[in-house]
Amino acid sequence: MIRDRLISEIKKTFSGWDMAINPVDNPIIRFPAAQKDIGDVLIYDDGDEATVYVENISLGHFNPYDETLTQEQREIAVTEDVISFLQALFADRVLLHTAPDHRMGGWTRLDLHHGPVALSPDRRYYLWSKPYEP
Q1: Rounded to whole angstroms, how far apart are CA atoms 89 and 111?
Q2: pLDDT-based confidence at residue 103 (cuts at 50, 70, 90)
Q3: Between residues 103 and 127, which one has the greater pLDDT?
Q4: How is residue 134 annotated by DSSP?
Q5: Across the strands, what pairs with 61?
Q6: CB 72 within 8 A of CB 87
Q7: Which of 22, 69, 96, 110 could disulfide-pair with 73, CB 3.0 to 4.6 Å?
Q8: pLDDT per residue over 27-74, tens digit each?
Q9: In terms of Cα–Cα distance, which of 62, 58, 54 is closest to 30?
Q10: What is the sign, positive or negative, of the torsion defined by CA atoms of 116, 100, 27, 130?
Q11: What is 15-62 written as a DSSP string?
């Protein structure tokens, strides 16, 4: 199960971090917010994929979308992708954005983005640890 591999690897990778783990129900992992405006990070096991919510920003689906993979290969790929995202997020290498009413949001991986990020005056921008100031 994705949940078993995800919980095990996240516990290893983020040992000593404040997190809540629920091996039975969703969300399976919750990291408390570094800032109220962003909200908690919630990780869900959706069977064949994981969904990561940055509570007040947006969500992302982590799934290799490759039907030729075995269940174990899928679990490994999903786990590696989620951990890579979390490491980037917590290291302030993910630019989070949201509309002031939080009805629309998203993120950009700065460590994977080439060139400057286009910013919109009608969005609020954050890094995990602080508001983003270009």
Answers
A1: 10
A2: confident
A3: 127
A4: -
A5: 51
A6: no
A7: 69
A8: 999 999 999 999 999 999 999 899 999 999 999 999 999 999 999 999
A9: 54
A10: positive
A11: TTS--EE-SSSSSSEEEPPSSTTT--EEEEE-SSSEEEEETTTEEEEE
Written as six digits, the tokens of 126 are 């954050």
Torsions phi, psi of 10, nearest 5? -70, -40
Q: Token pair of 88, please? A: 């980037």
Strand order in the sheet with 29-31: 20-21, 29-31, 41-45, 50-54, 58-62
Nearest to 34 by CA among 13, 58, 56, 8: 56
**Phi/psi at 66 (nearest 5 deg)?**
-130, 105
Sheet with strand 105-109: strands edge to edge = 105-109, 94-98, 124-126
Q: For the chain, how many helices (H) and strands (E)?
A: 2, 8
Residue with tokens 């995202």: 85
Q: For residue 134, what pLDDT is reported? A: 78
Measured CA to CA, the distance from residue 56 to residue 96 in angstroms comes to 10
